[in-house]
Design a protein that fits this description.
Order of helices and strands: HEEEEEEHHEHHEEH
Number of strands: 9
Shape: globular
Radius of gyration: 18 Å
Mean pLDDT: 83
Strand content: 25-35%
Low-confidence stretches: none
Distance between the termini: 46 Å
Number of helices: 6
Structural class: alpha+beta
Length: 183
């Protein structure tokens, strides 16, 4: 049993997996297998998906975890890692003892609702969960009812999947509180 399936079944969710597809190309053998599932995590609906690829062209669709927001929201949020050059620029031109180099602002770039960003950055649990991860968190105007987390480097283990679900739940709860405060 793979880790995604184990995580989904732990929360009594539904897991699906396509038959492994094998193609022979001039560059060699290429295999692909899509996996996805749905579950309830602390009363919120989560959908997970990945298209595992191996062989001649090892390009994989990123692992995605999507949580349906408790209430539809008009709030936008985008959290993504600084680029390599962005990190080097900050290290070079900011004072080495600057507190901003030791915060998540040194690792991530935040755009969207300022009130929500302030609340997220002030939460110790959120900062500890995303510190040294390489993830993108997104709530967009195109998909007002979901918050998406995308990993650039893949998931490590079952505990890592729990961490990602916790991050989504924290964002979901704060979006609900922020939306209520704006009304």
């Amino acid at each position: 049993m793979n880790q995604i399936q184990e995580f989904i079944e732990k929360y009594l969710g539904v897991y699906h997996e396509e038959v492994k597809k094998v193609t022979h190309t001039p560059n060699g053998k290429y295999t692909s297998q899509a996996k996805w599932g749905k579950l309830k995590y602390k009363e919120s609906s989560i959908t997970m998906s990945i298209d595992e690829v191996s062989g001649a062209d090892p390009v994989t669709e990123p692992f995605r975890m999507v949580m349906k927001l408790d209430k539809p929201s008009s709030i936008e949020l985008l959290i993504y890692p600084h680029s390599y050059l962005g990190r080097r620029f900050r290290e070079r031109f900011l004072n080495k003892n600057s507190p901003s180099l030791q915060t998540i602002h040194a690792q991530y770039r935040f755009t969207g609702n300022k009130e929500l960003i302030t609340q997220l950055c002030s939460m110790d649990t959120f900062r500890n969960l995303i510190f040294n991860e390489y993830i993108c968190i997104n709530i967009s105007q195109q998909k007002l009812k979901v918050v998406t987390i995308t990993l650039a480097r893949g998931y490590r283990d079952l505990e890592h999947l729990e961490t990602l679900a916790s991050i989504l739940k924290i964002v979901n709860n704060l979006v609900s509180k922020t939306e209520e405060g704006n009304r």
